[in-house]
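for the writeup, i need someone to sanity check this before i put it in the appendix. the sequnce is what the collaborator sent (i think, or maybe the updated version? ugh). structure was predicted straight from it, no edits. if anything looks off just tell me and ill rerun, i have time this weekend
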Amino acid sequence: MRIVTAGLVGLSLLALPTTLGAVEPSLVAAVQERLDALAAEMGFPGATLAVVLADGDSFAIATGLGDVVGEIPMTPDDRLMSGSIGKSFVAALALRLAETGRLELDRPVFTWMGAVEGFDRVPNARAFTLRMLLNQTAGVPEWIDKDVRALLQAEPTRVWSRADRLAALDGAEPLFEAGTGFHYTDANYIVAGLAIETGAGNSYESLVRSMLKELQLDSTEPSDRLELAGLVPGYSFALGSYGLEELAPEVALGERTARQVATDQTLVLNPQIEWTGGGLVTTASDLARWVHLLFAGEVMSRAALEQMTADPRSLGYPGYEYAMGLEVWRSDSLGTAYGHSGFFPGYMSDTLHFPDHGFSIAVQINCDHPEIAATRRVLEAIGELLAG
């Protein structure tokens, strides 16, 4: 797979793409022009975007500023937080382990987790399977409640242990009887992570690092510490919902004021809180390659991939469904696409594979305002350009 990179020169939105390999320079230039126009129209500070074409050739570009205060341009190699996109890696890892017999998707998780202190107090603990956790039908409610937010406010750099995560679910009421409904929560994936570690006999970080190395996704790693090499600053409008706004300095983004959540590649809160609910720092290039490899059959068998995409449930708004660690997006102009979006304070990311066209696209934006950083809008616009 050949990768072409083209970045922003200077501080304007005008870019001078460079091309290598077999990718048409005119295509890279057209995508750059469209991304620059979207940045100007939507008002996000900066973005990286990567495309993998149907033949496997790829390119990556950037627009705007990676550091608003320092007026430093974004580059295609900059790393950003990817939020819940990490769930697609967790689900894929579980399916790979199931294929080798190290995990069982349809055996009650309690049969191998029952002896873990506190697990019996997780809602529906005796009833759900790993498959239910991964397809969000286990009925486990969200774990970040007011008590967890209070702990986060008191100690934003806290390292969250397995016991901490289980304690946050202690005594909570299930959303529904396991297997009888659907509700998207990070908690389903946090519990899945605990089950994967215990069942496989290894840490999630070790397991996912091994998979990333095998797939040569060299810019991606668990975001399990405050300092993350290559991380650009993120600009957040959401910190107030966590009571953390005073941790980060104010930065003007046009007529709006955001909070800068990272300085000198160091975050103001420990991203390790995400863990298997997200938990990866990465590049747009790696995200586009990830979904492309997944649907090219390079990550798992076709039979396992069919399980990952089977029986999607509505996320509650038209055109958006959820399968196993994958969002299923039904676009009027581009057909059905598979991938995931992600949020972490200060960052929005999105990656999709479009089977009808054979290409994959990823975008990362260093801002979390839902209107400014509307990642799906960016992917659709670039997808329509690529589809002609």
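Confidence is low (pLDDT under 50) at residues 1-20. The CA atoms of residues 43 and 141 lie 35 Å apart.
thx in advance!!
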